[in-house]
Write a structure and sequence with these properties.
The protein has three helices and eleven strands. The chain is mainly beta and about 190 residues long. Residues about 10-25 have low confidence and may be disordered.
Length: about 190
């Protein structure tokens, strides 16, 4: 069960992040490739089970339509690594377990029992639709809330700059999963 929760945590992290943009970063609508460093807190409440909480750090790189997410404990001990490319997705745990699939969402479901929107996360991080999202703006026109297929993403910003990237995200689904992300650093990847 602990491995399953760690894997659920890992996949949920692929699904959301928030950030404080450096001055040199482009406007969010122009960003294609990026990396970020942050912290997460995850709460999973499945029917008939006690809620499970976890937290830690994440390092995520999105480049050339591929993703690499490293998850670690608050003290920096590695928990899992997730790599997705258009052709193959691979999940490796600290215990040495490795799984692969051509469908990242199906891989996560196989490992965790939950179909998580891994393929939509890069877009969600930037406040973009990962498919058929409804995006409500905040008072100055930035993405404030995103709703897509039962998922809700709430965005918080560190400043009032209209082009700012989010510094915090709260991603939730039906009271079962809540992922809070605080991004410490965004970088554009050339």
């Amino acid at each position: 069960m602990r491995l399953r929760f760690s894997l659920l945590l890992a996949t949920s992290l692929v699904a959301a992040c928030a950030a404080v943009p450096p001055a040199s970063l482009q406007h969010r609508d122009k960003i294609q490739d990026f990396s970020l460093e942050g912290r997460f807190a995850l709460r999973v409440t499945m029917p008939g089970q006690a809620p499970q909480n976890s937290g830690g750090r994440l390092s995520w790189t999105h480049q050339n339509h591929s993703d690499r997410v490293l998850l670690s404990s608050p003290l920096g001990y590695g928990l899992a690594e997730i790599e997705t490319t258009p052709e193959l997705s691979r999940l490796r745990t600290a215990e040495g377990t490795q799984r692969e699939s051509t469908d990242p969402d199906a891989l996560i479901e196989e490992v965790t029992g939950q179909r998580l929107p891994v393929t939509r996360m890069p877009a969600w991080l930037l406040g973009r639709s990962g498919g058929r999202a409804q995006i409500s703006p905040d008072p100055i026109g930035r993405p404030g809330q995103l709703l897509e297929d039962g998922w809700q993403v709430d965005y918080t910003y560190a400043d009032e700059t209209p082009a700012a990237l989010p510094s915090r995200l709260n991603i939730s689904r039906n009271g079962e999963i809540e992922l809070k992300l605080r991004i410490e650093e965004w970088k554009e990847t050339p």
